[in-house]
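We examine the record.
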Amino acid sequence: MPISTPTGSPAAVEMLTDFSLEMTGRDVPALHEAAPMIPPGTRVNVTFLGHEDPALRVAAARAVREHGFVPVPHVSARRLRSPGELDAFLAHLAEAGAAEEVLVVGGDPATPQGPYEDALAVIRSGVLQRHGVRGVGIGGYPEGHPAVDDDVLWSALAAKTAALREQGLEATVITQFGFDTAPVLSWLAEARRRGIDAPVRIGVPGPAGVRRLLGHARRFGVATSAGIAQKYGFSLTHLLGTAGPDRFLHDLAAGCDAGVHGPVRLHFYTFGGLGATAGWVRQFGGERVAS
């Protein structure tokens, strides 16, 4: 069933300015196909998955650069087995021209596989700057994290932004995706109230089948009550349907106040549908994102 993609309102389309996308190391063929639909200079994040080796991630980051986009490779702190592994990974990224921007996250393992217990430990190591990193993305969780208390999340976010500022690195917060704009807007306002002034990229689910969206929501602890699902644009009783984020973007644009929420951009989680997401953004944004 095709996904209907109406052209967005002016305010919603404005939010697409400088949007970013996400891919895995195995998505290079999909990147080749989607490239003509993606504006030059678009940031494309390359995930750090446990079953993909460093060479695959570096090759994907190189492909992003060769297509005229900005690679943002992920660094998963708790998956790193040694300082040497981090140093080698960054060195290979630098050789590929893909080390200027990275996203540093704690990662899925509950127990660190090496010396880095969290993203802050990587940031404080000083290794990033040695390989030419200038901008660092960090995670934000508008709906909380299933394994971490909210107070801990806020403390970690403040500590990471402060550490990046002290080291002269540009910080960007990229949030977990969700289906409800209310917690996103509340979280943004609270972040600004706490003095966190870094630009924020709001995580948005790319267009996909309902079953796939729900599967990723369960994996990442994202709320999907019947009311939220209906508001977003899909039914929990019709799992064979599809949904795009047009309602989410319209609601987000309507509720976003630059004076309260600060600089905001969008980051699309593509869930293996890089081409579908790029095509959806292009149609929703019309001429604004056509080139």
